[in-house]
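Open question from group meeting: does this chain pack into something compact, or does most of it stay loose? Before anyone orders reagents, we agreed to write out a predicted structure and look at it together. Recording both the input and the output here so the notebook holds the full record.
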Amino acid sequence: MAAWTWRFEKADGTQVEPAVAPEEFTTQGDAESWIGENWKALLEGGADQVRLLEDGTEIYGPMSLHADEAAAAESGSAGEGA
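Structure tokens returned:
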């Protein structure tokens, strides 16, 4: 059975200890739900971004925990090239 885990990092990619105790998840959806529920506490605890791993292999990332910045970047690029 696959184990889904998160890696917690500073903006420069340096791994940090998360403010919320991480878990191992049996599905990607469970892992993503958990990060959705805990991202604010993780950000406040010093993590800037996360990477999702399946059995130690990176699936995606880095994903910023700075929602306001990410939303601003998305809305700012939406009108480009139109």
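Observations to bring back to the group:
The CA atoms of residues 10 and 46 lie 7 Å apart.
Residues 28-44 form the longest helix (17 residues).
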